[in-house]
Design brief:
This protein has 8 helices and 7 strands, in the order βαβαβαβαβαβααβα. By secondary structure, it is α/β, with parallel strands linked by helices. The protein has a single domain, classed as Rossmann fold. α1 crosses α7, α3 runs parallel beside α4 and α4 runs parallel beside α5.
């Protein structure tokens, strides 16, 4: 439990999509250690089970297998959560996909693979969990939606990941749009991560991680606590007057370039 009541989120309930690895696991772990009951969700049951088993030694963590690239998969997640809980305080839309190739090799199928998860998945997951968020949120203590965007939705990336950067820019705008319409009982904000140790970033960091770190103002790759901290802030009393914000958590890449 946090030492300050401003950051105390103990007793809340959270769903973290893409919680079986990377940034999702970082946030889920931070929540569990802060006393939050957490459901993690993704397509891969093996990784979900492993993370849930580990986090359950520290608090309350369970999982739901869900393919969030389809509307039906998002509906299934909403129904599974509603079968367990009658309200939801925090939704973290973290499930995502990336793909890169030279411009001439880009096609409709490759774009669909990325946008179906990164944009439609965020929208439909929020839509199907909205009744539970509305049951929890009040104007005095709103429920929270935290979308995981990317620094690549703010700046132009060096790699040819056209669908990914476009999808994350879309997530940022969707965040603002939802924030306007779900206020005052639900806040909607986005975290825009830079380089973190995750499954999506593994190959990039192995190939160029040292060089990337040297180019960053803070000279290092993100750590788990660097991701858990902003999520806890946005979920706490300290973050209750923030909505529609895009917060770069990138070691200064986007804000100083």
């Amino acid at each position: 439990m946090s030492a300050s009541p401003l950051f105390d989120i103990a007793g809340k309930r959270a769903v973290v999509t893409g919680g079986g690895s990377g940034i999702g696991t970082m946030i889920a772990a931070g929540f569990v250690e802060a006393g939050v009951s957490v459901i993690i969700a993704s397509r891969k049951e093996d990784s979900l089970r492993q993370v849930a088993d580990e986090l359950s030694t520290k608090g309350d963590c369970s999982y739901v297998v869900a393919d969030l690239s389809t509307e039906e998969g998002c509906r299934g997640l909403g129904e599974a959560v509603a079968a367990r809980w009658d309200s939801l305080d925090i939704l973290v839309n973290n499930a995502g996909a990336n793909w890169g190739a030279p411009l001439a090799a880009q096609d409709t199928a490759s774009w669909a693979r990325v946008l179906d998860v990164n944009v439609e998945g965020v929208f439909h997951t929020t839509k199907f969990l909205l009744p539970l968020l509305q049951a929890a949120g009040t104007a005095e203590e709103p429920a929270r939606v935290i979308n995981i965007g990317s620094v690549d939705g703010i700046q132009v990336p060096g790699f040819e990941t056209y669908a990914y950067s476009a999808s994350k820019a879309a997530v940022h705008q969707l965040t603002r749009h939802l924030a306007k319409h779900l206020a005052p009982t639900i806040t909607v904000n986005a975290i825009a991560p830079g380089p973190f140790q995750s499954r999506m970033m593994r190959a990039t960091l192995e190939a160029a991680g040292d060089g990337m770190a040297k180019m960053m103002p803070l000279k290092r790759i993100g750590r788990p606590e660097d991701m858990a901290g902003p999520a806890i802030f946005l979920s706490s009393k300290a973050g209750s007057f923030l909505t529609g914000a895009i917060i770069p958590v990138d070691g200064g890449i986007a804000t100083t370039r």
